[in-house]
Automatic annotation (TrEMBL), chain A:
It comes from Terribacillus saccharophilus. Pfam families: BPD_transp_1 (PF00528). Its main location: membrane. This is Glycerol-3-phosphate ABC transporter permease. The lineage of its organism: Bacteria, Bacillati, Bacillota, Bacilli, Bacillales. One of its GO terms (biological process) is transmembrane transport.
Length: 307, 442
């Protein structure tokens, strides 16, 4: 953007204030597109949600101010408590497992071997699959009568498990498919991070004759920490916002065991036509994610090594 | 760099204008015809059938054009309608499932078809009364019945023979049902290769099993005389249904097939269970796809109860209020066309839904089809045997979708060993809360 400014005549001393004003307006002009986009699609909906959370509202808009009643109702309802539990469990099941899996695959394929491109494509391919399509595939695999998991269990002599119908397994089953779906993206980012590490460091390590694990601990992971920090943060936020696979695989059931907060918001807003309660849940979720992300930056970033 | 920026801003402006100029949902086409949009929730083979009927309508006259748009499941299309209802973008005709009836009436965004019935002295006595009465409130016909179905017991006749049961004599009472299920259950060690019965975890089946005993879902005559204020499904009658499921599940003769219709039907076809409750609209597909003989029977009822029949499920067609007069006329004309005997006969044969115009059953294509699929006739007979009452008319509440979720959660908790009465009471308490909250709406 600097070339635009270079074309301007060099200002004399007298026109300084004028120039400052011009630069100020010019800056705003450049910002305008993103301000409008963010304003229309992010900030307005956000403030509107906070506003609606203090009302009884349906999809046509608010109709009765109730103060904090929506919040009181939510906090005291069993359903919301089980949603919170399901959300936390879901995050715990998916984030560490997904990142470790992606890291493992990325380390494996960070070697210069013939044909490694095939594996890199394979491991990152889930990124190209839509959530809807992958969920349908997993739904068939979990089907107790015709699914592949039941077939394997039968072949091994175990009774077939109703993965998605049993509240003890449903959340695990959804998490497993989510780990698979998200692995491609995390893998790609981590592999990119690995490729960026200066090869001299590894050459020095080789000369020093250290073990692979030592090299991993002292060179790879510290050098990768900015990437890992990024992917951990993004995965956390993603996990909190998961919706598609739950809608397709379980619809929040059985016995609300997979009714994560985002799904509960969707149900209240669009099926039960209770926009006030949905907005209040959305506000609560927003502050939880905000708090968690802030904590991560405060605690996690200390360990991050920027070059 | 400058050029790039200029290009980007042009794109941005284009994007904004594209956003603001959404097409009007319906209007007049170039050749002077009035075009209306028809939202429906018929997927798969049914969608092809709907499109064909609409095409035939469009070519049958030259004043109106109907554009059918598939909007996903019943729940999804109701959700989508809520976002455009009351604006000029609302579709002229929308297909809404029975549970959305009260919500539609309360929304104030629909035009009751009674207005057109009165204007033309249209003869509604040609409609099947058991179906059209569902969509009548205080003597006013709100929507036009379109596709209606009832629950039936589908069973595997081959499995009945193998178990030594009479394949022509399906169980009718709960004790007969339990007995048959026990005989049909095949255990190999600790594995069960064939279960007796399965009922989908779907609120509709519970409502039906309640109504056939004459039970009410909510108070004030199922919400039809003054608004409903409390759930009443947790009475003795409701408990009998939950006790049946819970008892059979504990005995290992009941199979939990989840919430998905297709999963349930796949399990039935692969022989996982020998009996299940299904919608009459699914029967034809079952008969076609199963490699065994499928029997169809009336909905079972508890012992010593006089069965009252069934509530009609399915959907009806609603007309939007805030659209042009000529579009309403087009919508009404299209609805009238759909309810003619010929169209209903074709629809019944292709979909398995009931004809809302009983004259359709006299059409030749229906007679031929019934010879090929005698199972279809059972579903129609069951509807005709229904005793009209507020129980079999079904509940009229605006919070139906949520009430159904509570029933489903209750059913699911039975498989976790929850006490049937406790599960029902919990669902009822939740529904009471929602009813109370719902009564505060505008």
């Amino acid at each position: 953007m600097n070339d635009a400014r270079e074309l301007l005549p060099v200002p004399s001393q007298e026109s300084r204030p004028k120039r400052n004003l011009f630069a100020f307006l010019e800056g705003w002009l450049y910002l305008l597109p993103s301000i409008i986009l963010f304003g229309v699609f992010v900030f307005y909906p956000m403030f509107r949600t906070i506003y609606l959370s203090f009302f009884l509202a349906d999809q046509m808009g608010p109709f009765e101010f109730v103060g904090l009643e929506n919040y009181q109702y939510i906090v005291s309802s069993d359903s919301f408590q089980s949603s919170v539990k399901a959300t936390i469990l879901f995050v715990l099941y998916t984030v560490p497992a997904g990142i470790l899996l992606a890291l493992f695959l990325a380390l494996l394929t960070n070697e210069k071997i013939k044909g490694i491109g095939i594996f890199r494509t394979l491991f990152s391919s889930t990124m190209g699959m839509s959530v809807a399509a992958s969920s349908v595939i997993w739904m068939f695999m979990y089907n107790p009568s015709i699914g592949v998991f039941s077939r394997i269990a039968e072949w091994l002599g175990f009774p077939a498990i109703q993965w998605l119908q049993n509240p003890d397994y449903a959340l695990l089953a959804v998490s497993l498919s989510t780990v698979w779906m998200n692995a491609g993206f995390a893998y790609l980012i981590i592999l990119g991070g690995l490729q960026n590490i200066d090869t001299h460091l590894y050459e020095n390590a080789k000369v020093a004759g250290v073990s692979y694990l030592y090299q991993l601990r002292r060179i790879t992971l510290p050098m990768l920490s900015p990437t890992l920090f990024f992917i951990v943060t993004v995965s956390f936020i993603n996990a909190f916002q998961t919706f598609g696979q739950i809608d397709i695989l379980t619809k929040g059931g059985p016995v609300e065991s997979t009714n994560v907060i985002v799904y509960s918001i969707y149900k209240d807003a669009f099926i039960n036509n209770d926009v006030g309660s949905a907005s209040a849940q959305a506000v609560i979720l927003f502050f939880c994610v905000l708090l968690l992300t802030a904590l991560q930056f405060k605690l996690g970033e200390r360990k991050v090594h920027y070059q | 760099m400058k050029r790039l920026l200029a290009g980007l801003s042009v794109l941005f402006v284009l994007f904004l204008t594209a956003c603001s100029s959404t097409d009007s949902a319906s209007g007049t086409t170039e050749d002077g015809k009035t075009e209306i949009i028809f939202w429906h929730a018929m997927g798969g083979e049914l969608e092809a059938s709907v499109n064909e009927i609409v095409d035939e309508y469009n070519s049958s006259q030259d004043k109106y054009t109907v554009k059918p748009v598939y909007q996903g499941s019943y729940e999804e299309s109701l959700t989508k309608l809520n976002t455009v209802a009351g604006t000029a973008d609302a579709p002229a005709v929308t297909q809404i499932f029975e549970a959305g009836t009260k919500q539609m009436i309360d929304s104030g965004n629909i035009q009751p078809v009674q207005k057109f019935i009165d204007e033309e002295n249209y003869d509604t006595s040609q409609w099947e009364e058991n179906i059209s009465s569902y969509y009548q409130v205080d003597g006013e016909q709100y929507s036009m019945p379109f596709n209606s179905s009832t629950p039936v017991l589908a069973y595997n006749k081959d499995a009945f023979k193998e178990a030594g049961l009479d394949p022509e004599q399906a169980p009718r009472t709960y004790s007969e049902l339990k007995e048959a299920a026990e005989k049909l259950t095949i255990k190999e060690g600790d594995k069960t290769s064939q279960y007796g019965l399965s009922i989908l975890n779907y609120g509709w089946f519970f409502e039906e099993l309640l109504a056939t005993q004459g039970g009410m879902f909510v108070d004030n005559e199922n919400g039809r005389e003054g608004g409903a204020t409390k759930a009443s499904f947790n009475d003795e009658k409701g408990q009998k249904v939950f006790e049946l499921i819970s008892g059979m599940y504990e005995e290992g003769t009941f199979y939990n097939s989840g919430q998905n219709w297709d999963d349930m039907r796949a399990s039935f076809q692969t022989g996982t269970m020998a009996m299940m409750l299904d919608s009459s609209a699914g029967i034809k597909g079952l008969v076609d796809n199963a490699d065994f003989e499928v029997g169809v029977a009336y909905l079972p009822h508890p012992d010593n109860v006089d069965p009252q029949g069934v509530i009609i499920g399915g959907a009806s067609l609603w007309m939007a209020k805030d659209i042009e007069e000529n579009q309403q006329q087009a919508a009404w004309d299209f609805m009238k066309y759909l309810s003619t005997a010929e169209v209903q006969a074709k629809w019944h044969v292709e979909s398995g839904y009931f004809a809302i115009n009983p004259a359709a059953y006299e059409e030749d294509i229906v007679k031929q089809e019934w010879e090929k699929y005698p199972q279809l006739k059972v579903t129609v007979d069951q509807l005709h045997d229904t005793v009209p009452s507020t129980a079999t008319q079904g509940a009229l509440i605006s919070i139906f979708p949520e009430a159904r979720q509570q029933i489903v959660t209750g059913m699911e908790s039975l498989y976790q060993g929850e006490d049937p009465k406790a599960a029902l009471d919990k669902a009822a308490a939740e529904v009471d809360t929602v009813l109370e909250k719902g009564s505060r709406s505008r």
